[in-house]
Design goal:
The protein is α/β, with parallel strands linked by helices. It has 13 helices and 19 strands.
Length: about 375
């Protein structure tokens, strides 16, 4: 019995230490604590005694692509060669992805944005005004940008990662300009995308604000899920439209399809595999999905534009019955804000599928609009 008690005590001791790890920082061992994300899969935040570590996870092979050490005084850090130091809070940023701009707005950091991909794709009023006042610069394709053009703008660039670093990353690094790949667009859970606010919060030292905001939208999102579960019907839904010779619609395991399921509908492409898009001929879509009750995200602003693109769209039930909805009337706003406000996207879809026809008060949407 005494031996058993000793063994159990040893197991309990090991269990109590399981959430902390001993990790070298290049010189000495320190206690580290991984702050577990609730939904996001493609980054980690690890709290060390003298710095905060960010790990960017490549979503394709699940390996650590980049490591960054964040501290208010990086001169005192003794780091291994694979960890890139960043002094915080950062003063400015070049943001080349629209979803980043939405996140930075929620952190009250829109004024910190000094570089963008293109002003044509921006909704944020602060960024638009600063661009007009020559305080924000258009960068374009990062791979083609002259590294020296970033001098005096910002020492930090965030961009949509695609598994390979920018071709000029080495030259940028020599100028003390860092690049962080952002994989929020590879998250499968709507709240996983929004949780990337925690990564940006560490950069700007606004973690309390980020946690408060994320907890708020998580509660609102879950309330929407509860509302959806009270719906008795699951109306059929088709998505996408023709691009060239093929009709593209979200695959059954995609981010957009997840929203459709959560909003309680019968998504016609649910059985298709993959997290990207499925491609079908018009004939296949017409034969299989012509009688779908709702049509979401065709990518046009009006039925007239739809008919100009393809006159055969008129034969779909959703077209005949005026049940087509899209965010195309304000696309930049959608791309900037929908990722950080998933509860509003879900709310819109629930209203469209279940409530808008019952009561006029449910006909007001955050992002979507009926195509007339």
């Amino acid at each position: 019995m005494k031996a058993i008690l000793i063994f159990l005590s040893f197991v309990l001791l090991i269990s109590c230490k399981s959430n902390s790890t001993k990790k070298g920082n290049g010189n000495s061992n320190i206690t580290s604590k991984i702050e577990s994300n609730k939904y996001a899969q493609n980054f980690k935040i690890i709290k060390h005694s003298d710095f905060t570590e960010i790990q960017i996870i490549n979503p394709d092979n699940k390996t650590v692509e980049k490591k960054y050490a964040l501290a208010t005084d990086i001169s005192k850090l003794k780091l291994s060669k694979d960890i890139i130091p960043i002094q915080t809070p950062i003063k400015s940023i070049v943001s080349l992805a629209g979803t980043d701009i939405g996140i930075l707005e929620k952190l009250a950091c829109s004024d910190k944005i000094k570089g963008i991909l293109s002003n044509n794709y921006i909704y944020n009023p602060t960024v638009k005004q600063n661009f007009k006042n020559n305080k924000v610069k258009e960068i374009g394709d990062l791979n083609l940008a002259n590294p020296e053009s970033f001098l005096g703008i910002s020492k930090l660039i965030t961009y949509s990662g695609f598994g390979t670093p920018p071709s000029n990353e080495g030259k940028l690094a020599k100028l003390d300009i860092l690049c962080i790949p952002i994989y929020d667009w590879k998250e499968n859970h709507p709240l996983g995308k929004a949780e990337w606010i925690k990564l940006f919060a560490v950069l700007f030292e606004k973690e309390n604000l980020a946690n408060s905001y994320f907890n708020k939208i998580e509660k609102e999102y879950n309330k929407m899920l509860e509302l959806a579960e009270t719906m008795n019907k699951k109306p059929s839904l088709i998505s996408g439209s023709m691009i060239g010779d093929l009709w593209y619609m979200p695959a059954g395991e995609s981010f957009n399809a997840t929203f459709f399921y959560k909003a309680k509908c019968d998504y016609v492409n649910s059985k298709s595999k993959g997290t990207g898009s499925s491609a079908y001929s018009f004939e296949h879509v017409f034969k299989e999905f012509q009688h779908s009750e709702f049509w979401i995200n065709p990518g046009f602003k009006s039925k007239k534009e739809l008919l100009q693109a393809n006159s055969k769209y008129a034969y779909f039930d959703a077209f005949k019955n005026d049940k087509i909805f899209c965010y195309s009337h304000n696309m930049n706003y959608f791309w900037e804000m929908s990722a950080i406000e998933p509860q509003k996207v879900l709310s819109d879809l629930i209203k469209i599928l279940h409530l808008s026809h019952e009561n006029s008060k449910y006909s007001k949407f955050y992002f979507y609009k009926k195509i007339n």
